Every structure is written in C-alpha cells, then in structure tokens.
Amino acid sequence: MYNWHFTLTGDRDSPPLLLLHGWMGSCEDYCEVIELLKSHFYCIAIDLPGHGKTQTHDETGYNFIDTARGIIQLLDDLNIEHCAIAGYSFGGRLTLYLALEFSARFDRVILESTSPGLATASDRQARIANDRQIIDRLITGDSIEFVNNWYRQPLFVGIEKHPNFLDLIHRRIATNRPINLAKSLQYAGLGMQPYLGDRLKTATQPILLIAGELDFKFVTIGQNIERECPNIDFKIVPNCSHNIHFQQPQTWLDLCFKSQPQSF
C-alpha cells in the first residue's frame, strides 16, 4: 500500500529510534536532532502519508489506523523488532496509538505536544467539520499565505523569532503538496482517530509527554493526562511553544534521553 520515503542515519548496530513528524512536516524536520543523536542511535525518520515523498497506492493509505499498520510493516521490512519511538503533534498521536496497539515493539515512548484524541462523538464531528474548512482554504487558497497563517496560531507563539523560521516556512511549501496534505487531514485528522485516553490509563510502559510552556492548550492537555495516567511523566519546557524539537533541540534531547548512560 505504501512506497515509504525515509532516512536511516547512524550505526545499524546502535539502538533504533523511530521519529514521526507533525502535520505539514517531513522527515527533514528531524535533521538537527538526528545530528545530535546519530552517534548513539540508529535513527529512522519517515515521511508520513500525504507528506514529502512517501506515496500511497490509494486513499485508504491516508487512514490513521492503516498508516500505523504500514509503519509496523516498514519496521518489519527493516528487520527492526524493537525500537524507541518519538512523535510530534500529528506524529505524536500516531506514536501513542502504535505504543498502545503494538506495545511489545516500543521500549521507549516520547510524545511531544500531542493528545490522546477526542473523547466524544460530538467533539470528533465538530473537529471534522472544522478540518473541512481548513482543507478548503488549503486547496483553494495561496500556499504561502496558508502556511504563514498556520504558524500565527496561538500554540506556535514565538516561533517566528527563531533564526531558522523562514527556512521552516520554505520547507513546508517546497516539500508538500496541498492536495496530499488535505487527504492526510481528511483521513487522519484528530476527529478521525480513535480516542486513546481510556487505554492510556491502563498502559504499562513508561511514557514521556512534553509540552512547551507557552503552548497553553497542550500544557492543559498534558496536566489532565498526568492526573489520570500514573505511567505518564509530563514535563513542561520553559520559553517554548508547540514545536519543541525545532525551537529548542538541545532541551528536547536532554528531556528525552537524559537517562542514556552516554553523554550527549
């Protein structure tokens, strides 16, 4: 179903680490942190369906659950039985689903600025309706204007001050096609995924969840999850908003891998 595009960086004999980007991203989003990780991990960064150079044979390939199953098949094809996994935003939702559905495959789980989904059918329907409006703007409007407006959302506050922000904007436009992004949002948006909150409460493996201090929405989500899920280790990153691994890559590294015996 998939022709995956992905990068493999580091020593094949090192512990494998799977990296899943957010919506409108690509495997290139992790280039900077991979440079910091490659001497300790075998890093696998993939373009999720609808993004970058990954191709799916039909529209069912954009489906949230089928995407997760496709990722497991890719790991099988790479002969990777167990790995650590880190996901951001949309990629974090996939990461959480993978960690719960295929728990034996993932020995370390890192969630960045993500949620377990929406608990009620009415909330999911409202989100689907909202996403339809986003899809319409994405398909019919100007790509540059759409991307710039996307990063004006409150959850990204301060990101425009990053010295590489314009490069990020350019990469979003150059890497992705609006029609494919629209299909990703249509079939794998927040309203389309199964709610994972109840399953998260009974998860047995330790899970790290991080959110930026300035991203009030996901700080609140993280605090609620922490109260209900004893296995969650929730950390707040000061002076940062939604995209932590872009805004503060060294802080992201220190939080996610501080328990590693080797020094970064």
Percent range of helical residues: 40-55%
Distance, first to last CA: 38 Å
| Biggest sheet descriptor | 7 strands, mixed
Could you tell me the mean pLDDT?
95
Quickly count the domains.
1
SSE layout:
Layout: E1 2-3, E2 6-9, E3 16-20, H1 31-37, E4 42-46, E5 55-56, H2 64-77, E6 83-88, H3 90-101, E7 106-112, H4 121-140, H5 143-150, H6 165-175, H7 178-188, H8 197-201, E8 207-212, H9 216-228, E9 232-237, H10 244-247, H11 249-257
What this model shows, in words?
With 264 residues, the protein is an alpha/beta fold. It has one domain (2-257): Rossmann fold (3-Layer(aba) Sandwich), CATH 3.40.50. It is built from eleven helices and nine strands. The strands form two sheets. The chain has a seven-stranded mixed beta sheet with strand order 2-4-3-6-7-8-9, with helices on both faces. Strands 1-5 form a two-stranded antiparallel sheet. Helix 1 (31-37) links the parallel strand 3 (16-20) and strand 4 (42-46). Helix 1 (31-37) packs across helix 11 (249-257), helix 2 packs across helix 3 (90-101) and helix 4 packs antiparallel against helix 7 (178-188).
Brief synopsis:
This protein has 264 residues and is an alpha/beta fold.
Features:
two-stranded antiparallel ribbon; 264 residues; single chain; Rossmann fold; 11 helices; seven-stranded mixed β-sheet; alpha/beta
